[in-house]
Amino acid sequence: MIAFYALSRAMLKEFLRDWFTLLFTFFFPLLFVVAYGVHEIAVSADPHALLARVIPLYTWSVAGTGVFGMGMGLVDWRRRHLLRRIRQTPAGIVSVLFSRLAVIVLITSAQSAAFFTVLALPPFRITLGAGWWLCLPLIALGALSFACLGLLIGTRCANDQAGVALANLLITPMALVCGTFFDLRQAPDWIQTTAHMLPLYHVNTAMTAVLAHGAPAAALSTPALSLLAFSTGAALIALYLFRWEKNHPR
Questions:
Q1: Three-class DSSP labels, the chain
Q2: What is the pLDDT of residues 93-126, one digit of tens each?
Q3: Most exposed: 8, 93, 114, 141, by fewest CB within 10 Å?
Q4: pTM of the model
Q5: Could you report the per-residue pLDDT of 16-61, keeping only the tens digit for each?
Q6: Residue 44, by phi and psi: left (phi above 0), alpha (psi -120 to 50) or beta?
């Protein structure tokens, strides 16, 4: 527990000191939400349509937090030989991974609070239904899925350049396929089928169902199980491939 707390604190401080990361985690995603939201208001006054438009933009930022936060963090620590030093302490791989996951969930919570705050302010003034809190467990599961996806990157990438390239190669196509910038219902069938296999689709579906349509908890079982299955599979593969040092065998 001491190792978990120490590592979590160190990671959080590292994140808060990086202004560039803070901008891309909070400012730019909210800027997209406001820009697309204002455009949607000009087209339609339906709050449900507004939520359906801006929710995928928010979840896209959550995906970036999970993938980059886990993946690039491990790549950077391996490059600086911090993982090798941690390995020589009582802290094991479980403490390293769970402490980073805890920080990712904390940052995702802050992103969620900022997102809901923007929706409540002018020009949107969205009043969420009584069951809005049902989307919070799905957001946490989404953060877990994206972190596990980032873990796959962090286990094998040897340097920052390869990590960033692979992370963008995963996040950008996933955002496009899952309807972040367009209505997925207008996409060809093969794109919709592909989207069903990705975690971002299930987070979008669950949040839209709860916030825009007031869906009950029972309607979230399929997205929740899909996210858990994806997280489990990705985590098992990543743990099998994990290595502490660049040239160290598994």
A1: CHHHHHHHHHHHHHHHCCHHHHHHHHHHHHHHHHHHHHHHHHHCCCHHHHHHHHHHHHHHHHHHHHHHHHHHHHHHHHHCCHHHHHHCCCCCHHHHHHHHHHHHHHHHHHHHHHHHHHHHCCCCCCCCCCCHHHHHHHHHHHHHHHHHHHHHHHHHCCCHHHHHHHHHHHHHHHHHHCCCCCCHHHCCHHHHHHHCCCHHHHHHHHHHHHHCCCCCHHHHHHHHHHHHHHHHHHHHHHHHHCCCCCCCCC
A2: 778 888 889 999 999 999 999 999 999 998 898 8
A3: 93
A4: 0.90
A5: 888 888 898 999 999 999 998 998 888 877 888 889 889 999 999 9
A6: beta
Amino acid (1-letter code) at residue 109? S
Percentage of residues of the chain with pLDDT beyond 70: 98
